[in-house]
Structure formats: C-alpha cells, structure tokens
Write a structure and sequence with these properties.
heterodimer, A: 11 strands, B: five-stranded antiparallel β-sheet
C-alpha cells in the first residue's frame, strides 16, 4: 500500500523555468491539497481539489497551476519559477469533506530555485 | 485574524523525561484541533484530533488537552524517547468550511531528545 507519494523528492531549477511536481495517492481519496512549508511560516495552502476536474485556490496560489484529470494524481506546476518559490512542497489527501476529516501528507518535495 | 501560536519554538530534553508543548489559537468559529508530528524530511503525521467537547485525548505516550474557553491546547509527551525528536505542529480547523482547506497551521515546536 503506497499511500501518497511525491516526485521528485528534490529538485533544483533555474529562475524562469517551468517545473512540475507530481503527487499520487492510492486510496482513491476525493480531496487533494498542495501546501508549501517555509521557515517562519506554518504550512500554507496553495491549491486544493475536491474531485477530478474540480480545483480551487488556497491561501497562496499566485505563480502556480494545478490540474486533476484523474482522482489519484494532482500535479502542481510552477509556470515560471522564481526564487521566492524555493520551499518544501507537501501534497495531502483526505477521504471526505467535513471538518473532522483526516489529511494524510506525502513525504514532500524540496524545491530550490536558483 | 485566525492564528495559531506555539511555544516554545524549540526544546531540548533528556531521554526519559516528560515535556509539554503549548498551543494558543484565535480561530473562529472553531471546529477541531489536531496535533501533528513531523520527522525531519518527512510529511506531518496526525497524532490526535479533538473537537470542541473533548478536553483530553491520548495516543500512546502523547496526551493532548484542549481548553476551548481559553483557546489553549497542550501536548504532553511522557517518558520521551530518541524517536520523539521531531517538529510538533498544532493545527486548528475552522468550522463550517467543509473541506475547503481551512486549516490554520502553527509554526511548530522543534523537539530534540538527547540520550
């Protein structure tokens, strides 16, 4: 049971390049999320998805694009990477809606933009 | 503004000792409060989730308390082990927001357990 996986685990890219971070979950969870984690901040929500083909913005969506053509995949694309997007990115998923849901996090992708 | 503040920012204790981490929140309307453990280089893993009506919940050597009146929570770790070295994150959920990602994350307390 793989759970939720992210790839790559580490990525170095240059300013202005496009980069895509992958997230895959094997639980068939409806909801998926992308967060970034930076020193001095708690995790901040970038985008989330309630189901395939349904996505919505979170707290810090600027500079990011998401898609969800299949329930199990939720890629995050930085269309033109900037140094301020250097961060650790976490994907998460949850089974249902409601405020008592449990979110399960992936192992993270450490992205460095030079 | 919805906020979650944790203290201390970091903590060093000796193996076998107990410790308590604090969380204060100004989140409204409140739904539930959860504590996560995040090992270095890994994603957060849930330890406990407490609703408004629960004031204590345990998970092995971890015991979380919640005082909804004062908007405070604590995480008590008993008989610490080296494997408890991690960051502990307090997260408060906003009521009525469905699953729209209305989780307010604290910055975490970094715990180091030394032999």
């Amino acid at each position: 049971d793989a759970g939720i996986t992210q790839s790559p685990r580490y990525k170095i890219t240059e300013t202005g390049r496009q980069v895509t971070l992958m997230c895959h979950q094997t639980w068939s969870h409806s909801y998926m999320f992308w967060y970034r984690q930076d020193l001095g901040h708690g995790l901040r929500l970038i985008y989330y998805s309630a189901a395939a083909d349904i996505t919505d913005k979170g707290e810090v969506p600027d500079g990011y694009v998401v898609s969800r053509s299949k329930t199990e995949n939720f890629p995050l694309t930085l269309e033109s990477a900037t140094r301020s997007q250097t961060s650790v990115y976490f994907c998460a998923s949850s089974r249902t809606s409601g405020t008592s849901y449990e979110q399960y996090f992936g192992p993270g992708t450490r992205l460095t933009v030079t | 503004k919805n906020q979650v503040e944790q203290s201390p920012q970091s903590l060093i204790i000796l193996e076998g000792k107990n410790c308590t981490l604090q969380c204060n929140y100004t989140v409204s309307p409140f739904s539930n409060l959860r504590w996560y453990k995040q090992d270095t280089g890994r994603g957060p893993v849930s330890l406990t989730i407490m609703t408004f009506s629960e004031n204590t919940k345990s998970n092995g050597r971890y015991t979380a308390t919640l005082d909804a009146d004062t908007k405070q929570s604590s995480l008590h770790i008993t008989a610490s082990q080296l494997s408890d070295s991690a960051s502990y994150i307090c997260v408060v959920s906003v009521r009525g927001s469905s699953n729209t990602g209305k989780l307010i994350f604290g910055q975490g307390t970094t715990l180091q357990v030394k032999p």
